[in-house]
Amino acid sequence: MRKLPLILGLILLTYYNRVQQNPHGKTLQFSCTDCHTTEEWSFSAATASFSHDSTGYRLEGQHVYTGCKACHTSLVFSEAKTNCMDCHTDMHNNTVGQDCAECHTQNSWIVSNTTEIHQNVGFPLLGAHNYADCASCHTSVSRLEFPPLGIDCIDCHRDDYQSTTKPNHMEAGLSTNCIECHKVEAFEWTLTGFNHDFFPLTKGHQINDCAVCHTSGFFEPVSTECISCHQQDFNAASNPSHQGSGFSTNCTECHSTEPGWTPAEFKDHDAAYFPVYSGEHRGEWKNCTDCHIQSGNYSLFSCIDCHEHNRSDMDKEHGGINGYSFNSMACFACHPSGREEESFNHNATGFPLTGAHGATECSACHTNGYAGTATACSSCHLPDYNETGNPNHSSLEISVNCEECHTTDIGWEPAMFPNHQDYYALNGAHAAIAGSCVLCHGGNYQNTPGNCFGCHTTDYNSTSDPVHTAAKFPADCETCHTETAWTPSSFQHDDFYFPIYSGKHHGEWNVCADCHTEPSNYSIFSCTNCHEHNQNETDAKHREVNDYVFNSINCLACHPNGTEDD
Asked: At residue 5, does pLDDT exceed 60?
């Protein structure tokens, strides 16, 4: 019996020590019955009266369903931390800071506020940036790393700057500050402003529509020679007829950039026609109408209006000369420079000396005397025809009638190619640029590709709506496009993306905009616009699916073919 008090004492001491050694720490102020019952110590949320809100850390989102021990590993609740990084591994390797709440919520790790995030860091996602693939800028996104990036355009678009050829930005020394010419909120590299001082747009050139000169739609370097833009004006001029009179195609010889081509001066008159600024007629006239008596036709002129008072003398001086007649054409035929000693004018024959012929020595054509000299171009220029390799006239069997493509201008330029259809038919949009040969040939007419992709590789590679390269679209442009324009285009949607011509979606839509709600960006689509009336039913079916969210991206992620068993 002596041992009984000792045993009872030991039991009471053990109980006392266990009470003093609370497994949740000394600072816990809650009653045990808030979490436990008298039947067992295990925690039961169904019977517990404890509310986590009373700790100052409200359980929201996924935390509501997280087991207590996931955060309270030691059961000493006061040791639990409240910062995200205390429990969650930094998957971003310290590239975005430690405030997870800037991007994530307690409901899901999926980032839904990308636009707001970019706004806060000083780079708002405007225009094409709003639909760009994150990986195109954040190259380490596959590792979930987002180190700080430069926010200047050139930081990401240096390759675009260096590879642009229309115009060549590097050769032209264009600014690398892209926003000087391009809009940051645009979806294409459209031009908004440009320093055109290298070719001042003043007076007659003061135009607002760039396409007037840059007819191809690209801003490639355009020749600054007047005739390159004003060939039609030259051909159509009738007062006087520039083409018929063999005028120089160097417009600046007579014209300034004043609107309407006036006033104009014709200081090459002496060399091409008749010396009025030199020789015996210098200073003998005041206005063009002194000789050109019909202002609407400068090919007409008069000699006898000034010389008529000397007709008697002229008749005496020309006595015995066969064919003499006192009229202006007869005067000019024998006196093309206004001098008495002249007696022949080539321009009065059936072969007027225009263009390069005006400076050609007589013996170059009249190799066997002056009688019976052929007037066909090929009679003199067949060697030029045979030796031309760009393009090879002989192998392509181009006509030997040089005048079908060429004028008498020096250097065989400008030249036309009216039978282009015999080699490559210029239809649709190609017909509109038929006069701008360099756009397709680039100065090389011998090896120009004959398929769409050969010329439009850059268009294919740079297309972003949708991205042809990433989507691995076929390089046969005619599969989807016509020669008239890139739009509208046809597309085998089922083969590349989502079945809409077959399967459950066949016949369930009318126009592309039923699913593609953003007409300027076909990478954006909507499933919920049609299925939203079934959200309650869909939510019920997906109750046990992890990370289920009722939105279009998640629909496609799980059902890429639009069927339930995907």
From this structure: no
The reported pTM is 0.35
Structure tokens at 256: 């300034």
pLDDT tens digits for 297-337?
Answer: 777 888 888 876 678 888 888 776 655 678 787 787 678 78
Closest CA to 448 of 480, 420, 482: 420
Rounded Cα distance between 443 and 262, Å, is 34
Give the separation between CA 5 and CA 9, rounded to whole angstroms: 6
Give me the residue spans of the domains in the chain: 3-82, 377-444, 449-490, 492-566
From CA 250, how far away is CA 229, in angstroms rounded?
12
Distances from the Cα of 29 to the Cα of 24, 48, 72, 78, 258, angstroms:
10, 16, 16, 11, 94
HSE, side-chain direction, 13 A CA sphere, residue 386: 6
Judge contact between 257 and 205, C-beta under 8 A. yes
- Beta-bridged to residue 415, according to DSSP, are 406
CB atoms closer than 10 angstroms to residue 134: 11
Q: Determine how many CB atoms are found less than 10 A away from the CB of residue 164.
A: 20
- pLDDT at position 142 is 76
Burial of residue 298, with CB atoms counted within 10 A of its CB: 0-12 exposed, 13-18 middle, 19 or more buried: buried
Q: How far apart are CA 308 and CA 305, in angstroms?
A: 6
Q: Under 8 Å CB-to-CB from 442, ≥6 apart: which residues?
A: none
What distance separates the 2 farthest-apart alpha carbons in the chain?
Answer: 179
Query: 290 phi and psi, to 5 degrees?
Result: -65, -35
Average pLDDT, the chain: 80
Question: Please, which residues have CB within 8 angstroms of residue 471's CB and are 6 or more apart in sequence?
Answer: 496, 497
Tens of pLDDT along 349-386?
A: 778 877 788 667 666 787 776 677 888 999 999 999 99
Give the pLDDT of residue 241: 77
